[in-house]
Amino acid sequence: MSDERPVFGCHHVSTASGALRPDEPIMWLSCDTGVDVTRIAVAGEVDLSNAHLLTELVEAAVAASAPLVVIDLSEVGFFGAYGTGALVLAQRILTEHGRRLILHRPSPVVRRVLGVTGTLTAFEVVDRPALPATGGGSARPVVPARSGS
Predict the structure, then answer these.
(1) What pLDDT digit, counting tens, does each position of 6-57 carry?
(2) Which of 121, 98, 102 is nearest to 111 (CA)?
(3) pTM listed for this prediction
(4) Using CA of residue 3, residue 56, residue 63, residue 121, what is the dihedral sign?
(5) Alpha carbon separation from 94 to 8, 69, 107, 112 (Å, rounded)
(6) Who wins on pLDDT, 15 or 5?
(7) What is the pLDDT of residues 113-137, one digit of tens each?
(8) pLDDT of 141 strictly over 70
(9) Residues 127, 105 contacting (CB under 8 angstroms)
(10) 132 contacts 34 by C-beta, under 8 angstroms
């Protein structure tokens, strides 16, 4: 069996010389499901190109049947209007299935966008450092340090 992991949504972009190189992701998502809570962690940039992935992950989390879904937004560096729409839709989906949504530690940029759009008060927000564990961790991939650079 191969140790290679499939790369979801991997694109190649042209360089100035015309050669192709792998495009770097701008958003990372992780999902850990437990009996009582499903924890989704988001890192990077949430914009028009990827906000739908957050909504799709929440839709998939509904199948896990945990009564609580926590979306950790502490590592989000850019949050566009489509991110707001994705969270509003996520809350609607979860509410329709009798689930509860908590936004965990939204970064200052997320808090600002939600505040400006008047949607912050529509969400339950928790700022304390720890929530129920599901074996989670950072949404960003762990990259081993290079030696001898």
Answers:
(1) 344 455 556 677 776 666 778 999 999 999 999 999 999 999 999 999 999 9
(2) 121
(3) 0.74
(4) positive
(5) 25, 8, 22, 24
(6) 15
(7) 999 999 999 999 999 876 555 444 4
(8) no
(9) yes
(10) yes
For residues 73 and 14, give the distance between their C-alpha atoms in angstroms, rounded to a whole number.
Answer: 31
Long-range contacts of 19-26 (CB under 8 A, 24+ apart): 26/50
State the chain's maximal CA–CA distance in angstroms: 54
DSSP type of residue 103: E
Residue pair 127/108 in contact by the 8 Å Cβ criterion: no
What are the distances in angstroms from CA 143 to CA 5, 59, 112, 138, 146?
14, 29, 30, 12, 9
The set of residues, in sequence order, having a beta carbon less than 8 Å from that of 83 and lying 6+ positions away, is 46, 47, 51, 54, 76, 110, 113
Name the token pair of 54: 């957050």
First to last CA, the chain: 32
Q: How far, in Å, CA of 59 to CA of 127, rounded?
A: 24
Return the DSSP state at 144.
P
74-104 per-position pLDDT tens digit: 999 999 999 999 999 999 999 999 999 999 9
Tokens, residue 130: 């720890």
